[in-house]
Design brief:
Blueprint (H helix, E strand, L loop, with lengths): L1 H21 E5 L6 H8 L3 H7 L12 E5 L10 E13 L6 H8 L3 H6 L14 E12 L7 E5 L6 H7 L4 H7 L12 E5 L13 E5 L6 H8 L3 H7 L3 H4 L6 E5 L26 E7 L11 H10 L1 H22 L4 E7 L4 H10 L7 E3 L4 H11 L6 E3 L11 E3 L4 H13 L6 E6 L4 H10 L4 E4 L24 E8 L3 H14 L4 E6 L14 H6 L3 E4 L11 H9 L7 H19 L13 E2 L4 E2 L1 E3 L5 E3 L3 E6 L2 E4 L2
Parallel strand pairs: 9-10, 9-11, 11-12, 12-13, 13-22, 14-15, 14-16, 16-17
Antiparallel strand pairs: 1-2, 3-4, 5-6, 7-8, 18-23, 19-20, 21-22, 23-24
Helix pairs in contact: 6-7, 12-20, 13-14
Pfam family, one: LysM
Protein name: Amino acid/amide ABC transporter substrate-binding protein (HAAT family)
Keywords: Signal
Length: about 625
């Protein structure tokens, strides 16, 4: 018996020795991924999964993994690589070339272009400020060649599709492919994790997909997507182990809108978050067009302000901005402001850009008009300087662009969500002209059981822009009736509003709404009494401040302007500028202070920025306002 036990022990010890020679063990540390561990032991993720099938469900700290012996030769594989440790700035002198600069700093021309991307499309100019990388040499004994593989991009595949397919985030894909094109083309060859074909995730067309942005947690995603953490984890089981990561691609239901969010969040008081008190460098570009005015003539100046709307807007915005600088100063935030007159001309904008160095500015506000704004944003993109559009919608939402006015789509969605969240009993009617038939159908698809009414047509089938009282027979019911009026025609708006006001009574209440409050609702034939009686609701980028409310800016403005209250352009200048300065003082730069969980509100405007995956920032904070006793107030 003892002999048999001894033989068994010898056999078992032999097996252990053999096992130890072919396998190793690894205890998982916090934050480690299968890819990290595979690189460390020079094996593939698939090799680890083959011996540790439970690892497919996710890694837990202190779990012990069996690691196969690497097929890479055991001798040290040393490679020298350069690691960037910082940058120095080089200001281009006359007659300097990329070749001479590359020799001066002993780096390749391609390396200079890589960190100064504007050189791919533009020639080197005198005065250009170049970022010159500083390196240290790193000797490495590890290769990851066997933990990654090459993958050819298929038609219609973008970064997020490839990242999702191989179970990594978009930033991880970008790290594996530093020279990857911004827009992938079929046939592009990329480095991807070396997993087996049957481990690749399939893009299911009956689902939608969302890429997690910076600082987004489950609460932010619940607000934006309407999905709880539990729902997200059910669709994306890997979340239970890994949690949310920047650039992670999540599968969501097909009916979830992954681009627009209009739900409210709690306002953030940035006063308690101030920590960066370096002087803020701000540029303001506006079309003052002072070259057209005789500034020595008071009469000429007054005439210009009265007749030139762009000058008037610029001066009002500028005035509000100065009050914001004073308010920020009281909080310890100092500002260097430089003002430029674009003269509303492209050549003048080009002259400003060529004659000034904006690389050390914290933000540029303006220009006012989209074409000139686009010129500035495109030029400053190379230095990643935030360029802020104060009133208009930018032509291109570059990575460095801030669109501060909510888009028409956001306004529309906010109005519909406002009605959806209203739990009181109601009947919904949509009245529109032919031009807004698509909007009417969209509202009907969002608000079930609503009834549509369209304007009448003439004998030739053209829109006549009116309805008859008979068209409304039997449409309204006792109780509350919500009526959407969708039109940009003043005659049609007047026709419908007058008719609704006549029908409205205590038994059959009518509340008028629209998703697009345009000039049709402000014409001579539109009665504000009727709008007030119908509690007219609409979405807006701003609200009207209450004169009964104490406000430091408004009071200071009235003191200095003989009791005159600031108009919406002056208030906009104050609100927008103060928001920019407060955000800059709360983080290292404006980009870091623009997470979608931060919503700020001032006198008439609020700001909550969301970033497009491959683009800039847009304000998604929207007000719903209403007429009440001949005043416009925020609807609750």
């Amino acid at each position: 018996m003892k002999k048999l036990v001894l033989i068994a022990i010898i056999f078992f010890a032999t097996c252990i020795t053999a096992f130890a020679q072919d396998f190793k063990t690894h205890k998982v540390k916090q934050g480690e991924t299968i890819e990290d561990i595979a690189k460390q032991y020079l094996v593939t993720p698939f090799d680890i999964y083959a011996l540790n099938p439970d690892a497919k469900k996710g890694l837990k700290v202190n779990t012990v993994l069996i690691i196969p012996t690497s097929k890479v030769k055991e001798e040290d594989l040393t490679t020298e690589t350069k690691e960037i440790i910082g940058f120095r700035t080089h200001k281009t002198k006359r007659k300097e070339t990329l070749y001479s600069i590359s020799k001066e700093y002993d780096i390749e021309i391609d390396e200079i272009k890589k960190h100064n991307t504007f050189l791919y499309a533009n020639n080197l100019r005198k005065g250009d400020k170049l970022k010159i990388p500083r390196y240290k040499t790193v000797v490495s004994k590890v290769t990851i060649d066997n933990s990654i593989k090459k993958y050819k991009v298929l038609p219609k595949e973008g970064k997020w599709r490839v990242a999702y397919k191989f179970g990594i985030t978009v930033p991880q894909l970008e790290a594996l492919n530093p020279n990857m094109n911004e827009v992938l083309q079929p046939g592009d060859e990329l480095n991807v994790p070396n997993i087996s074909n049957n481990e690749e995730k399939v893009i299911e067309e009956n689902y939608n997909y969302y890429t997690v942005l910076k600082s987004e947690g489950y609460m932010a995603l619940n607000r934006k997507l309407g999905l709880t953490q539990e729902q997200l984890e059910t669709l994306n089981p890997e979340l239970k182990e890994s949690g949310l990561k920047l650039g992670m691609v999540l599968k969501v239901p097909s009916d979830v809108d992954t681009t627009i969010s209009t739900n409210d969040v709690a306002n953030t008081n940035l006063t308690s978050h101030l920590k960066n008190f370096n002087t803020k460098r701000i540029a303001l570009m506006m079309p003052y067009r002072l070259n057209r005015i005789d500034i020595d003539s008071i009469a000429d100046v007054k005439r210009a302000i009265r007749t030139d709307s762009r000058l008037s807007i610029s001066l009002d915005f500028h005035a509000g901005m100065l009050y914001a600088l004073d308010s920020a100063k009281r909080l310890g935030i100092s500002t260097y402001l430089k003002v430029f007159d674009t003269r509303d001309h492209a050549s003048e904008v080009t002259k400003i850009l060529n004659s000034n160095d904006f690389s050390d500015y914290d933000a540029v506000i303006g220009p006012l008009m989209p074409d000139n704004f686009d010129r500035v944003a495109s030029d400053l993109k190379r230095d990643n300087i935030p360029v802020i559009s104060p009133f208009t919608t930018p032509k291109n939402l570059y990575d460095n662009v801030y669109q501060t006015v909510p888009s028409s789509d956001l306004l529309q969605k906010a109005m519909i969500n406002f009605v959806k969240l209203d739990t009181l009993p109601k009947h919904i009617v949509i009245i529109s002209d032919a031009k807004n038939k698509a909007v009417s159908s969209m509202i009907r698809s969002e608000l079930a059981a609503s009834k549509q009414i369209f304007s009448r047509k003439d004998k030739d089938g053209k829109d006549s822009n009116y309805i008859l009282i008979s068209d409304l027979d039997g449409v309204f019911k006792p109780g509350r009736n919500i009526v959407f009026l969708e039109t940009s025609n003043e005659a049609f708006a007047s026709n419908v509003i007058s008719m609704l006001n006549g029908i409205h009574n205590d038994e059959q209440q009518i509340v008028l709404m629209t998703t697009n409050k345009n000039s049709a609702f402000e014409g001579e034939n539109i009665s504000n009494y009727h709008l007030s009686n119908l509690k007219f609701h609409y979405p807006s980028a701003n609200k009207t401040f209450s004169s009964s409310t104490t406000n430091g800016f408004v009071n200071a403005y009235k003191r200095e302007h003989n009791g005159v209250e600031p108009n919406k352009y002056a208030v906009r200048g104050f609100d927008l500028t103060l928001d920019v300065l407060m955000r800059l003082a709360s983080e290292e730069d404006l980009f870091d202070a623009s997470g979608s969980e931060i919503e700020t509100e001032y006198v008439e405007n609020k700001f909550r920025y969301s970033k497009k995956l491959f683009g800039g920032y847009f304000n998604e904070a929207v007000y719903i306002v209403k007429y009440d006793d001949l005043t416009i107030v925020e609807a609750k």
